[in-house]
Structure formats: C-alpha cells, structure tokens
Amino acid sequence: MGAEVRRQVSLVLAYVSMLAKARLSYRADFFVQVGSDLLLQAVDIAFLAVVFTRVKSLAGWSFAEALFIYGFFLIPFALFNASFAALSDVGARYVVGVSSTGC
Predict the structure, then answer these.
(1) Among 31, 63, 18, which Cα is nearest to 45's?
(2) Torsion angles phi and psi, residue 55, rounded to 5
(3) What is the pTM of this model?
(4) Fewest beta carbons within 10 Å, which of 33, 60, 61, 90?
(5) Radius of gyration of the chain (CA)
(6) Are 63 and 52 in contact (CB under 8 A)?
(7) pLDDT tens, residue by residue, 10-53
C-alpha cells in the first residue's frame, strides 16, 4: 500500500508542477488573474464591511467573527484551486479516447 500511495502522490505532484508551468507560460494572463482574484477578495470584504455598518450583528455574529469565518473558508478553497481545480478536465485533456461529452 505504501508504494501505491507514493506513486499517487508523485503523480499528483507531477500534475501540479505541469499545471504551474502551463499557467506561468502566459505571465501577463497569470498576473491579471491574480490581480482580479485579489480584487474579488477586496470586494467581498468591503461587502461584509458595508453590511456590518448597517447592523451590529447577524444572527449573533459580529463583523470580526464573520471576517474570521470568511478567511477560514478561503484557506482550503485557495489551496484546492491552486492545486486541484483543473483535475476535473484531466480525462478530456490528457487521456486519449475520452471525450468531454462522455461518449
């Protein structure tokens, strides 16, 4: 079992490395995407701030608590997106004979 797990981990790491190289091949596109992601997070935080300027708490949650929950959610979400988000189309892209329509 240990050898199989090591093989799977090495395959995932190879895929993540390949994905990083592909994303960084178009540097301007990569930096525009990073900038737009940062802007999206800023807009989300601003929205939370605007909501909490109107009310003291939502269902007992303060602004600091809601901000913590939002940040706590973003950590695994960002790790997933950075590493495995494109795995859903591996079959259609990299496996010969597999179509995206499932036929």
Answers:
(1) 63
(2) -130, 155
(3) 0.57
(4) 60
(5) 20
(6) yes
(7) 888 888 788 778 778 888 888 888 899 889 989 999 999 998 88
